Queue: 3 jobs
Job 1
Amino acid sequence: MVKIGFIGCGGIANAHLDSLLTIADVKVAAACDIVEEKAKAFSQKSGGANVYTDHHLMFEKESLDAVYICLVPSAHTDQELIACKKKIHFFVEKPVALSMKKAAEISAAVKKAGIATNVGYVIRYVDSVWQAKDFLKGKQPAVMHAFYMCPFVPTPWWRRMKDSGGQVVEQSTHIYDLARYLLGDVDSVYALGYRGLQTDIPENDIDDASNAMLHFKSGAAGNVLTTCLMKAGGGMGVDIVLKHARMFVDMSVFRLTNGETKEIKPTNDPRLEENKAFIEAVKTGDRSGIRCDYEDGMKTLEVTLAVNESIRTGRIIKIKS
């Protein structure tokens, strides 16, 4: 039986819980949230997890195999480091941190502890995305256009750069990660941002929109458009051009045009897939199903932080990893 604790019992934690409740030999033993009512509701849904409002006490009292860390980005303090010290495997939601210094500290602790980690980049677990990645093997993409366009998120912490890192770091990180997953690592970034159309929202200091140029180590060029100005008609996806071929990838389709157009639809539940992969790694030590561990998630963080730095400084930012 895999005994699991949750730190953070909000929306995304509940989505993971829905999946975990369908997986055999899993027990959610502890639920921790600074809002006790959330932890209690989570406990009831999970079948009776012990309730905590302090993760230090949870780690002290419970004997856990794994922990899910589903927090506001700025709320990450020592949760991952304690898990590493106790050799407790962890699943962490994106972004993995708000600074590369913090992420590097955690990454070093993960390696020292030898534990399994998984980062919640759920698009990597869509089976049609796997087929898109397989199609690209041995081929050279030339150019990529990606986009993430959606309405403004009303949650108060999301609008504060110090708490979320902005839309690029907290939300459209999914599309930056998908671009990395399909085309490989990025070596430089140049970005422009715009803000000023949503000054009516109290405390809002994040960009309304951004456009980032990416240069991949493979030589491919790309750009990523992000905005939270939409009311309707938004979406997300990655468009890639190769010699004599074009492909579009999102969570709902892999569309390939190379003389004729072929569409491949997903057939699996990616949220369930990512949780099954993590539980299997914890239970058996087989980590082959994990498609984004902490170190890989840290590389996506570096790209998104570079976008913010480029917007702020007007410079091309070199990616170090």
Note: The first strand starts at residue 2 and ends at 7.
Job 2
Amino acid sequence: MKKVTVALSVLVVLFAVVFTAGCITDDSEPTELLVATTTSLFDTGLLDAMQDYYLEEYNVNLLFTPQGTGKAIASAKKGDADVLLVHSPSQEKAFIEEGYGVNHRGIAYNYFVLVGPAADPAGVKGMKPEEGFTKIRELGTAGTDGVLFVSRGDASGTHTAEQKIWKSAGFDYATEVQGTGNWYKETGAGMGDSLTTAGELGGYIFSDEATFLKYKNNNPDSPLEVVIAEGDSLLNRYTVMTISPAKFPETNVEDATDFTNWLISEEGQEFIGDFGTETYGKPLFTPLQTIADSTKAPFNIDSTTPVAVPTA
């Protein structure tokens, strides 16, 4: 009888240990991953949905700091992020070449659009982007009533893409566009706020399609509508990278690596592709793995190869 009692006591202790261990695992505090990102991703609501899902499934709290790409990169260069999630190929390339970014992968794409008043006072609807920009500038500098171009003016990925179109159209942005009159207004704000300004002023604005759809859904009476949606210069590619531990040893490389691999996994790509379909009847972002070979032009980014934990 004594032996049975002892045996039962041991089983009770073992059960308590196992049960307690399980509780510790289930109730453990989530780790935190600092993600510097762009407002054109954040304003759509995608990142809020992703934050909730990822915390529930992986016990990692994604702390997003939405800014223009230029400001997000500046923040990452100060060590204020573990991950960079942006959409400006030229700025990303420089960031990596300077040794700040590693494990660069493509996750999604959509397109930029030029939106403007339904009345289209500049008459640019259906033009190629460069042609439309040229005509808006021509009429704007001539003081044509109702012709106004609203720019983010914040060194964001969207602003950088806008400047590339001005250059492609044959204009020096700093001397022939910026500061050349009241026709060109810079907000210095994010995409959502800049769209609000353009709507209030009845101006044209260069936007990513996803944020515009979200804006229009929330502001159905806005006078803005898409006037230009086709052209090679309108591709908008989104990528992720980890901040190099060689620059900042405290970078949370473990969670950053897991997050990157989740974004390019079947699960992560499906999450991105499903977002927005119920509300808008189409995804706001197209998973990059829908492209047969994203390493080729015009995407020029690996979107399938898993990354390893980087070391200093």
Note: Strands lie at 31-38, 60-67, 83-86, 101-117, 149-151, 184-186, 204-208, 224-228, 235-243, 286-287.
Job 3
Amino acid sequence: MTSGCLKRLAWIGLASVLALASSLSFAESYPSRPVKIVVPYTAGGPVDQLARGLAERLGKSSGQPFVVENKPGGNTIVAASMVAKAPADGYTLFMASSASLAVNPLVYRKLAYDPDRDFAAVSLVATAPLVMVVGNSTPATRLKELIPYIRSREGNFAYASNGNGNPLHLACALFGSMANVDMLHVPYNGTAPAVASVLAGDTQMTCDIVLSSMPQIKAGKLRAIGIVGPRRVEALPDVPTLAEEGLLGVDAAVWFALVAPAATPPEVVAKLNKEVVKAIDDPAMKARFSAMAMELGSSSPQGVVDLTNRERSKWAAVVRKYDIKVE
């Protein structure tokens, strides 16, 4: 080997060592200024409250403010696209949903971001179980009554969702597939008008986050048929799961994970993961959100990737069957 080659190898080695040292030094001092968590929903809602609760604990543990910025719109696409283009320095994070990471790539013909290419997973944060509800004009109190009733309507039974291709739409579609019933989908621009349509009798059913429908259920204005998930929820202890009622394979909880822009230094991601796990494992934090029917739970970065892949496989079959596409 010539002396020129040896010199080049030496320079390459030195550059690698310096880059590693710089990265480690950056991670040790991180964060040295405020960190922004972008939330793809409006202020005041359950996900916003979740992000603010997490931000408060991360701020206390790091000594730097973690600030929530709300960027609703486009089934989380507005916020996701913004964070995908942000500097990969750990100072802009995204409270991604299952829609952002698993569902949108399946249903949108064109997407302004690529969740696999553009994000580095930090940790799972929470899961929000769904509940299937019907209006009082629907003469069914249990799943075993509802399925025959839907079949008797011969395609004239309508369910509402908060938008075409949204996880709540897919949850009802999954139910239709597993129960082998024919239903009409009526998409609305948001959860509130979807629930309002069921209350008014314009549609007969919807699948919703438990927290959103709970006041109407407890007031007797909506009837809970079952939890669309693997277990009952503390907030509605008397409502069985669909599996308990005899319909297996309908598990459609919405989940949320913290992610960063893709090229964020691994040391920063690891540091964030450690702090997020600590914050989420706080008993007071768990109790607060359990009362809101949200199950807090952390994971490794790879755990988020694995969950995303499992969810895509599940929803891909539903998307193909019903040809669900959004322009």
Note: The first strand starts at residue 35 and ends at 39.
